[in-house]
Amino acid sequence: MPSLSKRSEHFSVNPSFVLAMGKVFSNVYHPENNPNGIINLAVAENVLVSDWLCKTFHQVAVDSPLLPINLNYTNFCGENNFRKYLVDNLMNKHIFKRLGNSEFDKEFANINNYYLCNGAGNVIEMLAATICDAGEYIMVPAPLYLGFENDFNKRFFAKVLPVDMEFDSSSNTYKLTVEKVRETYEEHSKTKSIRGFLLCNPNNPTGDLFGSAIVRQLIDFCKEKNIHYISDELYALSVFDPNTSFESVSNVMTEDDRNHVHVIYSFSKDLCLNGFRMGVLFTMNTGVKAVFDSCSYFMGVSSGTQHMMANFLKNEEYVENYLNLNKSKLLEQYTMMCDYFKQHDITYVDAKAGLFVWFNLERQMKKYLTRKHPEIDVSLPLTEQEEYEVWLDAIDIAAVNVSAGSFFKTKQFGWLRICFTSAHWPTMKIGLDRLFNLLNH
Ligand SMILES: Cc1ncc(COP(=O)(O)O)c(C=O)c1O
How far does residue 292's CA lie from ligand 1's centre (Å)? Predict the structure, then answer.
């Protein structure tokens, strides 16, 4: 067999949570056809509004059928008509809300500052590659979205440097401070080249939001060190806590930040359209823009998908109705989830946005493992290997797939993440029962 490149070895390695998907997809739970199959509560999908979306897209296709031009190549950065509706009816109306008349405000309405890519993963990968040479780092507060490492590293060899957020057990929240970011930077910058800082806000996995004061401090820190500030705002429109609102980094930005700040968005989460593979980069940095302009051929979204999405976004009533419906479904399901956890006396971080519950089962995992391996010292904290063993048993024995805390770069083991929108409540409840039955019996 002819040999392959050295790179190919690295390309063909997958993290364990990706490998597990092979098992999960080959034995998917179905209440009638495969009741013993695996219930997948790990992947960030939202099925709660799928029926509404399918019906609406059917109507969009009837009202605005494909035209011959939609069969052709298009502007790979995003077709102009599509970007117009994206910017006017979604980004600027619901997320950025930078609607003033200053020259700087107008940048947020300029479609040429928006790049449509093949999912946010694709944006993250290309942005990391644009900012970092191989082996250089981007700081990310941890626990952090488990895909960042793969996205940064897989093809372009950039790296994640976690900034540990402190868990406050009196309020069950994680605290991020600019002092901690500075401390991490000072500790590592002597030996590593740190090129940027990424904040996932609203946060995956905790579901928490970071306010404008800390965001401002973080941008100022990045400017002081002359590194990039990346805001991953994928869950901006999935804020379901009625007492909270999200403030995008765009509202905090001043003219002087234009070269440092980049925003990532996607239709995968807020619009429940993971399969459409539509991610967005907003940037005013001319160097970054030149890269995305030149490489857009590798990141394009099909003309047909753009056509369909443009006609969905054009109808402001669709967008409005959808956002309201989604928020009410998120709150309803999240409340059921929390009730379940309260009944089981489980510590969880109170989410305000997003699709996840981040909860702690260290005590239950330890007891489970002590029954399995009586030699284990129950008084010692759970280790990463022990957490991993429970995660594997949950898939192999209990037929439920959740995400183990160590995948999110936590240092305290025993946390898990469930995507509470990945199944309707009856299936979700069976999945949770399976997990708790495994650990308790
Ligand atoms: C915070 C965050 N960023 C990026 C992504 C990637 O999303 P996409 O499906 O648009 O590639 C995800 C997906 O779960 C995510 O949660």
Answer: 19
90 C-beta closer than 6 A to ligand 1: no
Residue 380 lies in a domain: yes
Residues 105 and 87 in one domain: yes
- Per-residue pLDDT of 105-152, as tens digits, reads 999 999 999 999 999 999 999 999 999 999 999 999 999 999 999 999
Whether 266 lines ligand 1, by a CB cut-off of 6 Å, is: yes
Look at residue 172 and tell me if it is in a domain.
yes
Domain range enclosing 15: 6-51+319-440
Euclidean distance between CA atoms 345 and 61, whole angstroms: 48
Both tokens of 408, joined, read 């999110």
Give the tens place of pLDDT for each residue, 370-425: 999 999 988 899 999 999 999 999 999 999 999 999 999 999 999 999 999 999 99
Please give the distance, rounded to the nearest whole angstrom, from the Cα atom of residue 201 to the centre of ligand 1: 12
